[in-house]
Amino acid sequence: MTNRSHLSQLLLDAGFLLRITRSQGIARRYFVVNGFDGALTMLGLLMGFVVSKPTDLAVVISVCMGAAIALGVSGVSSAYVSESAERKHSLAQLEDAMISDLSAGAHGKAVFWVPVLIALINGCAPLLISALIVVPLWLAYAGVLFPLSSLYLAMLVAMVLIFLLGVYLGRISGISWLRSGIQTLLSAALTVALIYLFAGY
Amino acid sequence: MVCIQRIVLDVLKPHHPSALEFAEALAGVGSDYHVRLTVMEIDANTETLQIEVSAPAINFERVQAAITAMSGSLHSIDEVEVRSLPEHD
Fold it and tell me: Which residues lie closer than 8 Å to B31 by C-beta, 6 or more apart?
């Protein structure tokens, strides 16, 4: 089996386990919720730096990545613990209904793999989104010149990603993607306004 | 040589995987396997199935393993059709 077919088989197996345990919706929800957390945390940090005294870019990057890694680790551990308990409970209920041991079957495998998959999704979402937001800061640190401050550019990236998460939610729920995108963008704008109000003086 | 050519099984399974996925997994056990799956009863958490598998030579252990892998529980073997094939030198 080639690496590619091995990977596609792994993805098929992961999809199958998520489907039989009806965990696709949970994984999607975790991705959006924790991704949104990541983006909003980065936006808050960046806004904090904007209203503070000018800080060295290396410090800004370190602080942002520190927060991103903490969100990622928190996402992995919290989702794994809660989903693991949930899957064990579901398996016990199913075994009661079936009056048989299902540990060797797909549902038994799901008790281990589904929490791992959901924990990875929950942890990777804020980490990836935060990393994307920090890209302008990295580029500026590497010497790339931008027409506006890299802090503002990173905030713009955060706003775009928050809008896209809203669009994604709108598409899932079947409501207007524009309305949903604007709703999430408004919560980001509110965050910026609150930070300016309380920390801007 | 004796070959199992048709078996009818009584199986209990959870709602997921679906009947379609279940039948596909059983048909994938070997080449030229024909599977007919009938849902006999649906409960809150489970489905009772009647599964008819036919093939030129059924590997029963592999069929049973596929049922277990799909979280099914084999309750009984209701019908069996076995054929003795002539030996060739």
Answer: none
